[in-house]
Amino acid sequence: MRNLTIKREKSFVGCAMSAFIFIEDENSKDEVIKGIPCRRLGSINNNREETFSIPNDEVRIFAIFDSLSKNFCNDMVIVKEGTDDVVLSGKCKFSPFKGNPFKFNKED
Prior knowledge:
By secondary structure, this protein is mainly beta. The chain has strands at 2-8, 19-24, 31-33, 36-44, 49-54, 59-64, 74-79, 86-92, 102-104. The strands form two sheets. It has a five-stranded antiparallel beta sheet, with no helix packed on it. It is globular. It starts with a strand and ends with a strand.
């Protein structure tokens, strides 16, 4: 197991809502996002950071706000296989037609 730390940057957009963090898990029935079974890791509030335990395997990490908008108001990042701890960051982006989704800062 390794640690995944997610830093949610301060943003006025979506500031009152918690982003729920999920990890793909074929054995879980917590939530299905874009056809992928997922297990909830926890939530993260505006201008906060949270740390979660994740496996050493390659996994997909999702951020959503609720079950109703999970298939259009979400973001996903792939965490590569490894043993090193991982740090991700992101914030809510202004997009009223898409529910002002949380977006991970992604490297090229």
